[in-house]
Design goal:
Length: 306
């Protein structure tokens, strides 16, 4: 087993804990923040355990758990709803342009297939995650919706034994037509080797014109002193719980790495651009300064590169 496989595997086995926390943040945003909402996840509450449902539903629990016990995470909460909004904006544009496949890497409790039934006839959704997480997800979808959406395909991947590209193919993914990938909340927990390995596997199984959106942590020297302190506290917190943050980038270093793997930059979205697009004059939400969003397309290799 390679180091990249080990790193990805250890992350995937813990995804159910992370997935429910992310879904809770989306539920809290819809319930407790004033409209207009950045991201309306109307099914998020259905994805929660009884404990996290109470956290999202009751103000006292939300304050005690979200603001006090997990207060070190508070700077990250805006990034969760902002990255979801940005990704789905780009996805809808891609679908309108004819993209017919959507692959969610580390899908967790994403609810796109439930919320956007209006797009069910236009796009097939492939959710990639650890089998244990998906078993829980299926139960919650059935309870909330009565059935699994017809356009949703689960792709169980245990990175200890499975290859992402092979499992996508088995699930019916068509490598001859472009796809849109989302890869949220993952890159900073992986080694550079694991990131490059995933990019290579996606490039090997994707048609030219495919696109990927993901978030990444910027290098500390690009942060203000205040944000660097908050970031270091968060890093220490997650490391103590067995999920160390391993990789960061500058926009230049990320662009260079992506280019070496055959990807062309569409855009990168720093916090100030996140604010301009989605927050305007709001003061109740502050973009997370150490997370940027990235959007790349997969271009055909030249003869020399091949």
């Amino acid at each position: 087993m390679t180091n990249s496989e080990s790193t990805t595997r250890s992350r995937s086995k813990d995804t159910s804990k992370t997935a429910v926390l992310v879904a809770t943040v989306r539920a809290v945003h819809l319930r407790w923040h004033d409209p207009p909402h950045i991201f309306e996840d109307t099914f998020a509450m259905h994805m929660l355990t009884p404990f996290w449902h109470a956290v999202a539903k009751y103000r006292l629990f939300k304050w005690l758990v979200g603001d006090v016990i997990l207060g070190v995470y508070r700077p990250v909460y805006p990034a969760i709803v902002l990255r979801s909004r940005y990704t789905e904006d780009q996805l809808v544009d891609a679908i309108d342009s004819g993209t017919k496949q959507y692959v969610i890497l580390g899908a967790g409790h994403d609810t796109f297939a439930l919320r956007r039934m209006d797009l069910a006839g236009k796009v097939r959704v492939f959710e990639v995650d650890h089998p244990a997480t998906q078993d829980v997800k299926k139960q919650r979808i059935l309870k909330a919706n009565g059935s699994i959406p017809d356009n949703l395909t689960f792709v169980p991947v245990d990175f200890e034994v499975d290859r992402l590209d092979e499992e996508l193919e088995k699930a019916g993914f068509d490598s001859q037509i472009p796809a849109f990938y989302s890869w949220l909340g993952v890159t900073y927990y992986l080694t550079p080797e694991a990131i490059r390995d995933t990019l290579d596997r996606l490039a090997a199984t994707s048609a030219p014109g495919s696109r990927i959106v993901f978030d990444f942590k910027i290098a500390k020297h690009m942060m203000s002193t205040e944000w660097r302190t908050l970031c270091e506290k968060m890093e220490a917190f997650v490391a103590r719980r067995g999920e160390p943050m391993l990789t960061d980038f500058t926009p230049q270093s990320l662009g260079d790495m992506m280019a070496r793997h055959g990807y062309t930059e569409v855009e990168m979205i720093p916090p100030e651009e996140q604010r301009r697009r989605y927050l305007g004059e709001r003061t109740d939400i502050e973009p997370t300064a150490f997370f940027h969003f990235a959007h790349f397309s997969l271009e055909p290799q030249s003869q020399e590169e091949e």
